[in-house]
Amino acid sequence: MKKHNGNQRELVYVHLNETKHYVLSYGIEFEEFARSLKDFMNNVLLLKHHFDDGEFNLHTLLEYVPLEQMEKLIKDDVYGYGDFCWVDFEEEDALNELSGQELAELLFLGHMKDALRTPFYQQLRNRFVYLAHDDGWWNKVYYRNMKDFYHMLGEVLAAKMTDSKLAKNLLGIKKKRPFPPIHMELILNMKIMMKEGILISIHDNVQTRTVIEIPIWVLGDFDNMDDMYEEYEKMAKGKPDAKLVFDKKTREWKMYAS
Fold first, then answer.
1. pLDDT-derived band at 56, boundaries 50, 70, 90
2. What's the chain's average pLDDT?
3. Which of 25, 95, 124, 195 could share a disulfide with 89, CB 3.0–4.6 Å?
4. What is the 3-state secondary structure (H, E, C) of the chain?
5. Cβ neighbours of residue 37 closer than 8 Å, sequence gap 6 or more
6. What is the distance between the alpha carbons of residues 150 and 186, in angstroms, rounded to a whole number?
7. Mean pLDDT of 123-149
8. Residue 28's closest CA among 111, 117, 139, 189?
9. pLDDT in the model for residue 258
10. CA gyration radius, the chain
11. Is the separation of the CB atoms in 64 and 58 below 8 Å?
C-alpha cells in the first residue's frame, strides 16, 4: 500500500454496483460514514476487528457493539485494525436466531469481503454490511436501501469541505465554515458516472470570489486503490468530466458536466 501524499481525506473514489447493492470506495472513513448516518445506525455485529470493548454473543461466538457503546467504536483507531468488518442488527435476540448457514455466510463476508447471496437478513433487519481493509483506503459497503448511500455521500462531502476550508473571522481567528450537505438530487445526477467509477477531488478545488469548484473525473472500475490513484494522477492533468460547484453567495450546490 502506498501513501498518497496525505491526500486521502480530500479525495473520494466511488464505484457503484447498484444491481448488487454495494459501493466500493476510497477516502470515506468509518467515523464519517457513521456520523452521516447517525439516525440509521444500530447495534453492530463485529466480523473482523480489534475493538477491546465489545460484548460477547454465545450463539455466534462473535463480539458486538450495542448502540449505546457506538461512540467508543467511532472514536477508536479502526484504520489500525487492518480488516474491519461488521453487520448491523436491531435486537440481540436476533443473533440467537441465526442459522448455521447464515452464520457461515456472515463469516464468509468478513473473510472474503464478498457475499455468497444477498447479505441482508430477516432476523437482523440489517441496513448495512461494512467491509473494509485499512478503513478509508478500501471500503465495500452493502446498502439495503441505496438512498442511504446517496444521503451519506452528500453529507460526507460537505463535512470534508468544512474540515478542509478555514476562513478568518473579523478577529483574525481561524474558524471552520460549515458547508451545507449536497442534496440527494445532485448526487443522483452522478449515478451514471458512479457506475463507471469516479474520483471527486476536494484537493484539486478551484476557488474564485464567487464559487468553489470541485472537479470530478471518471476513472473506471478499480479494486486496487494504488492503480486507481495512478489513474487519478494522469487524469488530474486534464479537464474534469464534471464539477460540483458551491455558490458562496446563495450557499447552494450545483453540478455541471464539462
1. very high
2. 93
3. 124
4. CCCCCCCHHHEEEEEEECCCCEEEEECCCHHHHHHHCCCCCCEEEEEECCCCCCEEECCCCEEEECHHHHHHHHHCCHHHHCEEEEEEECCHHHHCCCCHHHHHHHHHHHHHCCCCCCCCCCCCCCCEEEEEECCCCEEEEEECCHHHHHHHHHHHHHHHHHHHCEEECCCCCEEECCCCCCCHHHHHHCHHHHHHCEEEECCCCEECCCEEEEEEEECCCCCCHHHHHHHHHHHCCCCCCEEEEEECCCCEEEEEEC
5. 148, 151, 152, 155
6. 9
7. 97
8. 139
9. 77
10. 19
11. no
Q: How far apart are the first and last CA of the chain?
A: 32
* Sole residue written with cell 470541485: 214
Contact indicator for 253, 187 with CB cutoff of 8 Å:
no
